[in-house]
Amino acid sequence: MFIFVVGLNHKSAPVEVREQLTFPESTIGESLTRLRSEKAIEGCIILSTCNRTEIYCATTDLEKGLASVRRFVTNSGPLVVDDFANHFYTHSIYDAIRHLFRVAAGLDSMVLGETQILGQVRRAYQLACEHGASNSVLNTWFQQAIAVGKRVRTETGIDQNPVSISYTAVELARQVFDSLGGKTALILGAGKMSELTLKHLCSNGVSTVIVANRSFDRAEALASQFGGRAISFSELENYIVEADIIISCTAATHYVVRKNMVENIMACRAERPLFLIDIAVPRDVEPSVGTVQGVHLFDVDDLQNVIDQNLAERRKAASQAEIIIEQEINKFLKWLNSLFVVPTIIALKSKGDDIKNKELDRAFAKLKNLSEKEQNAIGALASSLVNQILHDPITQIRQHAASPEGHLYSEILQNLFNLEVAGQRQKKNVEYSETRSQK
Question: Which residues form the Quinate/shikimate 5-dehydrogenase/glutamyl-tRNA reductase domain (predicted)?
Answer without folding.
Answer: 171-306
